[in-house]
Amino acid sequence: MSIPAPEHNPQLLAAAIAPREGVLKKILRDPFGSGGIVVIVVIVLLSVFAKLLAPFDPAYVDIQATNMPPFTDGHPLGTDASGRDVLSRLLVAGQLTLIGAAVTVVISLVIGVVTGLVAGYFAGPFDHAASWTADMLMVLPSKIVLVALFAVIGPNTVVTMAVLGVMVSPGIFRLVRSLVIGVKNELYVDAARVAGLSSRAIIGRHILYTVRAPIIIQAAFIAGIAVLIQAGLEFIGLGDPSTPTWGGMLQEAFLAMYKAPWLILWPGLMIGLFVSAFILLGNAVRDAMEDSAKVKVPKKDRLRTSTMAVTVQPGRRAANTPAIASGSALLVVDSLVVGYPLPDGELKRVVDGVSLSVNEGEVLGLVGESGSGKTQTAFAILGLLPEEAQIAGGALFFRGEDLIGMPEKARVKLRGKSIAYIPQEPMSNLDPAFRVGFQLVEPMRAQLGLSKSEATKQALELLARVGIPDPKRTFDAYPHQISGGMAQRVLIAGAISCNPDLLIADEPTTALDVTVQAEILDILRGLQKERNMAMVLVTHNFGVVADLCDTVAVMQLGRIVEQNSTAALFAAPVHPYTKMLLDSTLEGTPARAPLRRAESPVRVITTEDDRPREEALNVSRSV
Amino acid sequence: MSHAVSESLSDTLLDARDVEVTYPSRGFRTPPFRALKGVSLDIKPGETVGLVGESGSGKTTLGRAILGLAPVSSGSIRYGDRELVGLDRAARRGLAHEIQVVFQDPYTSLNPAMLVADVLSEPLVAQGVAKSEAADRVEMLLGQVGLPADAGRRLPREFSGGQRQRIAIARALALEPRLIVCDEPVSALDLSTQARVLDLFIEIQDRTGVAYLFVSHDLSVVRHISHRVAVMYHGEIVEYGDCEQVTGDPRHPYTKKLLMAAPVPDPEMQRQRRVERQRLALL
């Protein structure tokens, strides 16, 4: 066969191997991430080597030189109200702040992550007890507890911050627990269980690894909060007066506000820088781990391409005149190109020069495998392409009207009234917050100008027409109360409610059971005949095409490779790709023969054989 | 022990009898949900048993019950001379060599953060195979499912759906099991990919003699790969027999309905089938 199997195409495979970038590299490339890391590293280094770097002993008091402004007498940042060197105190103060923040982060992570993993994975009594304890801790006002703690144990930063760690651990616990509950039913966790991994291995290898990103982000935020709370406590005088701290310095500066207002600047700056560095780093980690390689299209570019498409049209229109003049073609798609911008500025063409036409009352099947561009073509006709998609060429005409150049308002009016749509996933296309009836009646009132009672009456009739046994009950139901098949009927009722001329159905039965699919196809066929409605049916199923369509277009990699009447295409497919697809369908192929003893691996171990039973069983190998 | 008993035992790899799975009710005063209402099924060594049914019929639940992933409330599942119902986690781990799984969704059944080589060597290492030996085995497994040897150094997201399903099949084969529960393994795949993956399943079976419980909603897929077919409806098996008979000349009205509902890729044949189905529906 001349068609390279997409699955084994070495070029595709090679293209799939994009250079992998480590998370760390991504964080460093993000200016906020690298900036945050630089600030944190500098502050940590300055604090660790504070004793070496400080020009003075932080406790050295020079009564002669109080409240000196910066850059005087070897005091780069000036002196405070007691005549101590501000720079030296600022550097040394960092030590205790860092230790305090580290204690809080480590304690809250150890408690929160371990209990969260165990509670989430095993559930049961431990989960109940842990969740209850977490709730109890969360209702305790942490700052008041810390103030009360000061009264009991006096100024001890490490113990205070450890207690803070315990107080904030429920936040981590709840985060980890809910993440684990979300992940533990993933199929790969089930597969690991079947593969014989122990619970500890599953939690360590599969679950912890998957939930690590939010934990790291949360840890960065907790570090920032810990610095703030510590500074806040010291500011209200609950610190150790014998060691310099940023919060303590802030408090002293506050008292000397009128004499030396600049003193408040330095500790404030340090706290602000340090906390923002952690928050920016947290955000950068999140962005890097979420792996969002989104390509932003500059607004200018988007405008340019759309005007290009418009300017192309006059010429195109001339080329199309015969089709339009004949008056029979309801929809004309002419050399349509739809693309998505790639990071390197190129356009990835997902629809690459597609031309087709649909006459009144005609049903066109648009068939292809995933990635063939069939859905993108349908969305382009509907005008529902995603924001970043570009119509890079070609034209669309509906009743001779140019769809691409049409103002959005006119397009909206056309959609729903003249062109209707049935989606693949019925459930996700009904708003769970509103009753089914409301969702049917509202568009009818907006598009047809009907009164509420008229619209309700029509909606009930339509529901009966699409084969819903108790229309009133479905009308009053919420989407979650009806089945997928019923939901699809509701959407069909909605789609035909405004008497459209063209119905675009995107894999309308793919998500449904086969018996329901048959019923839905019957309904679509009936409605189409009854109303002489044109249809574009996007599907991957040749059986559905054979059941419903007058003409077929087969799509591969954005192009139409073969287009013919349904009868002719099935009778004599021409293009090798069409042939390959038809050969791949299993309908009507012979059944596999029953298992002959000859095929069975236990054949050699027959009853004539005198081997012991264990071997004859051949199933208890590893017992 | 008589030869007759030995023969009948050796003839059955897995024997499920009257299996019931009941999930407790969520709401107040709503009855518990009976996903399986006493299902019996046997699988012979080297055989494919197709399990076909629509959503909510319990076909996936039966597969999960055999895998120990669904709670069996009564009945028995015997594997050789071992009872699977009521095994604790530790005892269940010992069965990893015997029963494996290929899930439907190739996108969620592989850990997105693990390299393919780690995905494949994990079950081996967990069963005590040395790391270097496991690495050799991984290369061999990739070859068996038709993937290049360097596929191990990549992440699952770099592969297409069909290729991912091949990785999932390689993982199931890693421990050389005697039974693989395949839960809709081709229904997320494109038509041409589906046909090739099915052929891979058959080829592996011919070579290794592994048995499949092949769960699918698609009668034509089941017909292609199964030696025997069981049809499930509302938590019960309504028809169970040779593939040709069940999928070609069904006895139970539901199986007939299922067969008639699937559209055939031939306009004329499909028209006839439609007329026949509508006639049946009126009966």
**SS summary, helix count of chain A:** 24
CATH homologous superfamily of the largest domain in chain A? Answer: MetI-like
Shape estimate of chain B: globular
Radius of gyration of chain A: 35 Å
For the record, the count of structural domains of chain A works out to 2
Number of strands of chain A: 10
Helix content percent band of chain A: 55-70%
Greatest contact between two chains: A-B, 81 and 106 residues
List the helices and strands and how they pair.
The complex is a heterodimer of chains A (623) and B (283).
Chain A: H1 10-16, H2 23-29, H3 31-48, H4 50-53, H5 86-122, H6 124-139, H7 142-153, H8 157-184, H9 187-194, H10 199-235, H11 246-255, H12 265-290, H13 299-325, E1 329-341, E2 347-359, E3 363-368, H14 374-382, E4 390-398, E5 401-402, H15 408-417, E6 419-422, H16 436-448, H17 452-465, H18 471-476, H19 484-496, E7 502-506, H20 514-531, E8 534-539, H21 542-548, E9 551-556, E10 559-565, H22 566-571, H23 576-584, H24 613-617
Parallel strand pairs in A: 3-8, 3-9, 6-7, 7-8
Antiparallel strand pairs in A: 1-2, 1-4, 4-5, 9-10
Helix pairs in contact in A: 2-12, 3-5, 3-12, 5-6, 5-8, 5-10, 6-8, 7-8, 8-10, 9-10, 10-11, 10-12, 11-12, 16-17, 16-19, 17-19, 19-20
Chain B: H1 3-10, E1 14-23, E2 33-43, E3 48-52, H2 59-67, E4 74-79, E5 82-83, H3 89-93, E6 99-102, H4 116-126, H5 131-144, H6 161-173, E7 179-183, H7 191-208, E8 211-216, H8 219-225, E9 228-233, E10 236-242, H9 243-248, H10 253-261, H11 267-282
Parallel strand pairs in B: 3-8, 3-9, 6-7, 7-8
Antiparallel strand pairs in B: 1-2, 1-4, 4-5, 9-10
Helix pairs in contact in B: 4-5, 4-6, 5-6, 6-7
